[in-house]
Specification:
Layout: H1 4-16, H2 19-26, H3 30-44, E1 49-52, E2 55-58, H4 60-84, E3 91-97, H5 99-115, E4 119-125, H6 128-137, E5 142-145, E6 154-169, H7 179-185, E7 187-189, H8 193-204, E8 217-220, H9 228-232, E9 238-241, H10 242-246, E10 254-256, E11 264-272, H11 279-299
Parallel strand pairs: 3-4, 3-5, 7-8
Antiparallel strand pairs: 1-2, 5-11, 6-9, 6-10, 6-11
Helix pairs in contact: 1-2, 1-3, 1-4, 2-3, 5-11
């Protein structure tokens, strides 16, 4: 690796055509310029100039080193421009969240990218543990969690909450179905469904509910966007966060039960502690907060502490 200061002195010497003019531009003495030249030639291992009186001619090695000096200066100028300009509409940002939140968030991200041709957004639907690991490793700029991270290297802000919804076929007439009628319908399970059922049913059917794994299961769906589909066809019921229902195209064929004891899950926006977030990441954070605010509006009042 060539010494950057010596290389800049040599590049300036080539541009000015003389030691005295190079010294003046660099605010150096002429002997100082000569010293940088000697050290650079020693580092390269070849003569860079051939002197003729007060003028000089570049050797073949000198021509190559001069081209390197010009290229390196251009790279440094470009780097300085990128660092000095924090344009939120330029660059790449990565965000991870649950699949249901991703479905309601993604249209807003696409709308923002449509306005900013140089903005690239990477959105990944991931489990909570993977989001936390990705934040620590620097894979994700932002993460959306349903609980405070409790990790020293991650900072988080509670930005809202969303309701867990008991989703029934629209043909079901009961606003609050009995537990036996739910068992008759059957549970459309999914990876998070058992956890949701334990949270919702233990409060609303305490005398009859014996645990999610003992529910009558009618089907299992691993694709977040398709979980409500069998319910819309009258096949069973399921439990999803509000964001998992809001984007389903067949919402008219669904009914959200108004259970007496609602369960709401917090929404936390997280990032790596100590990091200064660039403009594009702050832009994404603002979009996430806006989506969380909309979910909070449709999920009802703030839950009691």
């Amino acid at each position: 690796m060539l010494n950057s200061q010596w290389l800049e002195t040599f590049t300036c010497l080539c541009e000015t055509g003389g030691y005295s003019r190079a010294a003046e531009r660099l605010n150096m003495t002429q002997p100082g310029v000569s010293q940088h030249m000697r050290k650079l030639e020693q580092q390269v291992g070849q003569q860079l100039v051939t002197k003729s009186g007060k003028s000089f001619t570049l050797t073949e090695a000198g021509e190559a080193v001069y081209r390197l000096g010009v290229a390196r200066r251009a790279e440094e100028e470009q780097l300085a421009a990128e660092i000095g300009t924090d344009d939120p509409s330029v660059g790449t940002a990565a965000l991870a969240c649950s699949g249901s939140f991703a479905m309601i968030l993604y249209p807003d991200l696409v709308a923002e990218m449509a306005k900013a041709s140089q903005l690239s957004v990477h959105l990944e639907a991931a489990p909570q543990s993977s989001i936390l690991a990705g934040l620590v490793e620097g894979k994700f700029d932002l993460g959306v969690l349903d609980h405070p991270p409790h990790r020293a290297r991650i900072e988080a802000e509670r930005i809202g909450f969303e309701e867990l919804c008991l989703i029934l076929p629209a043909s079901v007439s009961e606003n609050v179905p009995t537990f036996s009628s739910l068992e008759t319908l059957g549970f459309i399970a999914h990876p998070d469904g058992y956890e949701y059922a334990d949270a919702l049913f233990s409060l609303n059917y305490p005398g009859e509910f014996e645990g999610a794994r003992r529910l009558r299961q009618r089907g299992f769906v691993n694709q977040i966007g398709q979980i409500p589909a069998p319910v819309a066809s009258g096949v069973g019921y399921t439990i999803l966060p509000r964001s998992g229902v809001a984007t389903f195209r067949g919402r008219g064929k669904l009914r959200i039960s108004q259970l007496p004891k609602p369960v709401r899950r917090d929404i936390w926006l997280a990032w790596r502690r100590g990091r200064t977030l660039p403009g594009r990441v702050n832009l994404l954070a603002a979009i996430v907060r806006d989506v969380a605010a909309r979910l909070r509006t449709v999920s009802g009042a703030e839950p009691e502490e």
